[in-house]
């Protein structure tokens, strides 16, 4: 059954949600570039979050992101080259190599958090604080409790 409003077909809502997400993330990365993080990409934010404060292995990273160990390894290689990650021996198990964030990686995440707040404030200034809060509340109602998942790269990749 088609939607009753032909100007608001069902497929439009997810596309608008994706466009809003894309706009937010593009604005984030434009600002991060101005602040010296011009090589960070949207995928990298998921990777840095998945590495976490204690580090992880490439295999565990792949599982967290929903991608293969090989794909995780290639992404880690890129972020090591860019100075956001480093490989180190695991102090608890000499057979394992840990992937850890560098100071540059931590700085990128800290700056991202600040910019996200600034962008939310910009949306609130444009739409109104009540409307932005209502959007957030409505999305919380419609999404599962475990809505923040790091496996988006694997989900998008199929």
From TrEMBL:
GO terms for molecular function: DNA binding; DNA-binding transcription factor activity. The keyword DNA-binding applies. GO terms for biological process: response to stress. It comes from the Bacteria. The keyword Cytoplasm does not apply. PROSITE patterns: HTH_MARR_2. Residues 1-144 form the HTH marR-type domain. This is DNA-binding transcriptional regulator, MarR family. The lineage of its organism: Bacteria, Bacillati, Actinomycetota, Actinomycetes, Micromonosporales.
